[in-house]
Design brief:
By secondary structure, the chain is of the alpha/beta class. It has a domain of 174 residues: Vaccinia Virus protein VP39 (Rossmann fold), CATH 3.40.50. Helix content is 42%, strand content 17%. It contains 9 helices and 7 strands; from the N terminus they run H-H-H-H-E-H-E-H-E-H-E-H-E-H-E-E. Strand 2, helix 6 and strand 3 form a beta-alpha-beta unit. The longest helix has 18 residues. The two termini are 15 Å apart. Bound molecules: S-adenosylmethionine and calcium ion. The site of calcium ion has 5 residues, from loops.
Length: 250
């Protein structure tokens, strides 16, 4: 993770910039990714996370779940920043939610929103067994109206240490406009899947799935909004192609 790397890289002379071509992602092969999972990630995965990952693998939409390496990264990040008050938009069966809940102190809080309660309830027994359900305030329904209500109340301004956005990609820019008000100075907002399948650098006429086109449009909007806010520093990390996230620090 780096600070303010976007501007500085653009300003670097060509000779100093990363020159290698041919890598599909930060990781060079599926076999390498599998090796990392098996040697570093799975051995450190807490038992409840493993249980939830295995339950979710049987779900017809299992592709939506956060990967084990990203779950572990979230967990570590939350501990590093001593997060206490957090929010998650897009819960599905709760893998990233459980990673968050396990990282927070006993009196930590997560406002968790999803339009689908059924999927959340698949993971809930595991979350309860792990002893962290008391940290979660789950709200069923679209997230935007909840955020609007919080902004209207006024009392939530600058109260969130960490916010993880992993829901409807075409609303990311609308979330961003509202979350800027709710995140603490020095807090983090994480937007998942922002480099989706590398579509952000694909040529304009490249054949692309709708989801990838939406991601690209969103990214442009956020870049413009970031450019207007000079007090921001930008931190990003990339994992495998399907689970990429950007973290923005305020
Ligand atoms: N973070 C989850 C995990 O670790 O498994 C994965 C989330 S999944 C990629 C996206 C979720 O966003 C789905 O469960 C979907 O129901 C939810 N969603 C879609 N539109 C939404 C909206 N407008 N408000 C809240 N949640 C929404
Ligand atoms: Ca995701």
């Amino acid at each position: 993770m780096a600070t303010n790397n976007q501007t500085t890289e653009q300003q670097q002379p060509q000779a100093l910039r990363h020159q290698e071509v041919g890598h599909k992602s930060l990781l060079q092969s599926d076999a390498l990714y599998q090796y990392i999972l098996e040697t570093s990630v799975y051995p450190r995965e807490p038992q409840p996370m493993k249980e939830l990952r295995e339950i979710t693998a049987n779900h017809p939409w299992n592709l939506m779940t956060t990967s084990a390496d990203e779950g572990q990264f979230l967990n570590m990040l939350l501990k590093l920043i001593n997060a206490k008050n957090t929010m998650e938009i897009g819960v599905f069966t709760g893998y990233s939610l459980l990673a968050t809940a396990l990282a927070l102190p006993e009196d930590g809080k997560i406002l968790a929103m999803d339009i689908n309660r059924e999927n959340y309830e698949i993971g809930l027994p595991v979350i309860e067994k792990a002893g962290v359900a008391h940290k979660i305030d789950f709200r069923e329904g679209p997230a935007l109206p909840v955020l609007d209500q919080m902004l209207e109340d006024g009392k939530y301004h600058g109260t969130y240490d960490f916010i993880f956005v992993d829901a409807d990609k075409d609303n990311y820019i609308n979330y961003h406009k509202r979350l800027l008000d709710l995140v603490k100075i020095g807090g983090l907002i994480g937007y998942d899947n922002t480099l989706w399948n590398g579509s952000v650098v694909a040529p304009a006429d490249a054949p692309m799935r709708k989801a990838s086109r939406v991601c690209r449009k969103w990214r442009e909007g956020v870049r413009q909004s970031l450019a207007r806010r000079e007090r921001l520093s930008f931190a990003g990390f990339k994992m495998d192609d399907e689970s990429t996230a950007r973290f923005v620090r305020y």
